[in-house]
C-alpha cells in the first residue's frame, strides 16, 4: 500500500486525478471502477476540468440502491451523470451502473460480473470508505471473497446517507454492490478518504489486522493500492511520519 497524506482534500484529490489521467493517456480504452458519495466529488470535478478523452473509456460503478429507478434524484445513476458523466465525453454505452430495479437480482449480478470480465477487467478502481470500513456497500462481516450481489445496508450507513434523502426512512434498505472479491480483481485500487470521521476506519484498513469487520483491510492483500488521505483522515495512523517520508523520498523514476 502506498499511503499519501496531504494537507487537505483538494491536494489529495489532485494526486488521485493525476493518477487517473496518467492511466487514460497511456490506455485510452481503460476500464475504470467508480464510486459515488461525497468523497470522489472533487476528483470528478478535477477530472472533468482536465483535457482527457473519455470516448473509449469504460466505467463500472460499485453500487446502486435497490428500488430506485435511474431517474430517481438519489439514485447513483443520477449522481454519476449529474456530477461527472455529463461533463466529459464518455459514451453512454460504455457506462455501467448496477440496475436497482433489476427483476432478477442474482441474474443481473452475475451478468454484471460477466460484463466486467468481457471489458477486460477493471484497470483502476476508485474507492471511498465508510466510517465502519465498508468499501462499495460491503458492510462489516461481508465475505472477503464476495462477488456482485444484493446486500442489506447497516443502520449506520443508512443514517450516514440520510443527508442525501429527506430522512433516514427514505434511504433504501438494500443495494446491489460489487463484492470484495470483485474489487480485489482490479489491477489497481485508489482509495480516498477525507475528514476525521474516516480516521478510525482508515487506521484499521491500513494498519489493523485483515478482517471482515473492516472490509477495506483486505486491500492489504492487494498488490497495487494507493490511499490518498487528508490530514484528519490520517490522524490515527501510527506510522504517518514514515508514510510521509516515503512519499517525499521516492526515487526519481518512481515519482
Ligand atoms: C459508494 C460507495 C461507498 C462510499 C462510502 C463513503 O459508491 O462505494 O463505499 O464510498 O460510503 O461515502 P462518502 O464518500 O459519502 O463518505
Can you tell me about this structure?
This protein has eight helices and ten strands. With 255 residues, it is of the alpha/beta class. It has one domain (2-246): Rossmann fold, CATH 3.40.50.1360. The strands form two sheets. A seven-stranded parallel beta sheet has the order 1-10-9-6-2-3-5, with helices on both faces. Strands 4-8-7 form a three-stranded antiparallel beta sheet. The radius of gyration is 17 Å and the shape is globular. The mean pLDDT is 97. The structure holds fructose -6-phosphate. Fructose -6-phosphate binds next to loops.
Uncertain parts: none
Q: How many β-strand stretches?
A: 10
User: Which small compounds were modeled alongside the protein?
Assistant: fructose -6-phosphate
CATH fold category name? Rossmann fold
How would you state the average pLDDT, rounded?
A: 97
Give the termini separation: 15 Å
Helix-and-strand structural type: alpha/beta
Shape: globular
Task: Give the number of domains.
Answer: 1
Helix percent reads: 25-40%
Annotation field: number of helices: 8
Report the order of strands and helices.
EHEHEEHEHEEHEHEHEH
Which strand-content bin applies to the residues?
Answer: 15-25%
Radius of gyration: 17 Å
Oligomer: single chain
Major sheet: order of its strands? 1-10-9-6-2-3-5
Biggest pleated-sheet summary: 7 strands, parallel
Which CATH C-level class is it?
Alpha Beta
* CATH architecture title: 3-Layer(aba) Sandwich
